[in-house]
Amino acid sequence: MAQESGMVACLRRLVELESPSHNKAALDTLGRHLAGEFGKIGGRTRFHPQQHAGDHLQVDFPGSGKPILILGHMDTVWDLGTLASMPFRVAKGRAYGPGSFDMKAGIVQAIYAIRALEEFGGRLPRGITVLLVSDEEIGSHSSRPITEALAKKSAAVLVIEPSQGPKGALKTSRKGVGAYHVKVEGREAHSGLDSDQGASAILELARQLLVIEKFSDRERGVTVNPGVVRGGRRTNVVAGEATAEVDARVSKAKDIPYLDRKFRFLKPFDKRCRVEITGGIGRPPMERTKEVVALYTLARRLAHELGWELEEASVGGGSDGNFTAALGIPTLDGLGAVGEGAHARHESVVIAEMPRRAALLARLIETIP
Ligand SMILES: [Zn+2]
């Protein structure tokens, strides 16, 4: 119980330091606070300075052998000021607040796991590196090279993203994620006087979207979703331009070029229009490789020893674990908090699960070969 209240207090502080992906100043404030927290338990902290993104925080705990990389992110999808309508609060065994579940409680659990290893063993069983990036929710563009470089030096990567579902399943496969930008250029004209002179970019885009819709192949694990469309400027003008942003996901790495070809080969129905495709799958899928299965099997055994049955799940969302798994580094994801409502206003974590998830993380650090 004492440990739970300490963890909740630590979580409260992190949640109350709001950290939207696009606010460098706010992210850097949280980063400094976290550097202090990890410093208190003996971590050597250093920042990877960024001009626009928040500085990424790396913490090294020296020890023998190849280190374990604990991977997480500081940024949230919530704007500054969200706390006013969605304050940190505890009710019925849950802690609520922006970023609580995704993934500040995971960071708290990592701090407590490392602390426990130090307290019980007198010193750490091996080296540990913690990387907390500032741009995961917006594609990890500035942090990806750092994540990949540290992963290559590590024995395994433990991702402290939220677990899946009420039982807190680990994530052993994740889809690859990206977005295609479809831009159609047509020809503007007065809709009444000389509409036959015009070529509507909006109508052309609508026809393209019906083709794109068919790229989805659920059995294959490929999905596309035109989430945003824009176009035209006035009702009495034949639209000269229209664009769509299409979310795209794949389960298998080999489907990345397959889907890409389909997008690149889109041809205009109306020859007077031009269709331009940019973007693509930026985050490769995390496939359920034998390395992933071996780590999961170990985690399952350790959880069993701690008194619960750990499950696994396959999810559509990507994380930075996708990068490290694609490099062939054994990666296990979903080791963070148990809760619900990531990116939603009821975002919350189950407090009683926090100590035992921290214990599982500690046991994994000790046991991974
Ligand atoms: Zn996350």
List the SSEs and their pairings.
Layout: H1 2-16, H2 24-40, E1 44-48, E2 56-61, E3 68-73, E4 89-91, E5 94-96, H3 100-121, E6 128-133, H4 144-152, E7 156-159, E8 170-174, E9 176-185, E10 189-190, H5 201-213, E11 223-231, E12 237-238, E13 241-250, H6 255-264, E14 274-283, H7 290-306, E15 312-315, H8 321-326, E16 331-332, E17 339-340, E18 348-350, H9 353-367
Parallel strand pairs: 3-6, 3-7, 7-16, 8-15
Antiparallel strand pairs: 1-2, 2-6, 4-5, 5-18, 9-13, 9-14, 10-12, 11-13, 17-18
Helix pairs in contact: 1-3, 3-9, 7-9
Explain how this protein is built:
It is a single chain. This protein has 369 residues and is α+β, with helices and mostly antiparallel strands. 34% of the residues lie in helices and 25% in strands. The chain contains nine helices and 18 strands. It has a six-stranded mixed beta sheet, sandwiched between helices. It has a four-stranded antiparallel beta sheet with strand order 4-5-18-17, with helices on one face. A hairpin with a 7-residue loop joins strand 1 and strand 2. Helix 3 packs across helix 9 and helix 7 packs across helix 9. The longest helix is centred in the N-terminal third of the chain and has 22 residues. The chain is elongated and about 85 Å long. The chain binds zinc ion. Zinc ion binds next to helix 3.
Task: Explain briefly what this protein structure is.
34% of the residues lie in helices and 25% in strands. It contains 9 helices and 18 strands. The mean pLDDT is 95.
